[in-house]
């Protein structure tokens, strides 16, 4: 056995303590500046929505009328 003193009052930090500190810092920043973060979130949500729409429609959500204008040549 060793003759080192025993530290009974030592509080061991959990393994995820660093991540918890970062989460608390981010949460504090969001609570201090809600308007800024809400605006940023809405802009990012709109960009995501536009990206999804652009991907689904292939870059054009309107009909150009090309087929309609050339109907007499088709028939």
Low-confidence stretches: none
Alpha-beta classification:
mainly alpha
The largest β sheet comes out as:
none
Fraction in beta strands: under 5%
Q: Give me the count of strands.
A: 0
Please give the alpha-carbon distance between the first and last residues.
100 Å
Which geometry do the CA atoms define?
rod-shaped
Q: Helix tally? A: 4
Order of helices and strands: HHHH
Overall mean confidence score, pLDDT = 81
Helix content: 55-70%
Radius of gyration from the CA trace?
A: 30 Å
Task: Please characterize this protein's 3D structure.
This protein has 75 residues and is mainly alpha-helical. It contains four helices and no strands. It has helices at 17-32, 34-57, 66-69, 71-74. The termini are far apart. The mean pLDDT is 81.
Attribute tags:
75 residues; mainly alpha; 64% helix
Topology:
Blueprint: H1 17-32, H2 34-57, H3 66-69, H4 71-74
Quick overview of this protein structure:
With 75 residues, the protein is an all-alpha fold.
């Amino acid at each position: 056995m060793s003759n080192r003193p025993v530290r009974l009052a030592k509080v061991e930090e959990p393994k995820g303590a660093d991540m918890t500190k970062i989460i608390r810092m981010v949460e504090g920043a969001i609570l201090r500046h809600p308007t800024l973060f809400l605006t940023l979130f809405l802009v990012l949500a709109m960009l995501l929505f536009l990206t999804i729409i652009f991907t689904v429609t292939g870059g054009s959500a309107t009909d150009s009328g090309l087929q309609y204008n050339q109907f007499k040549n088709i028939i």
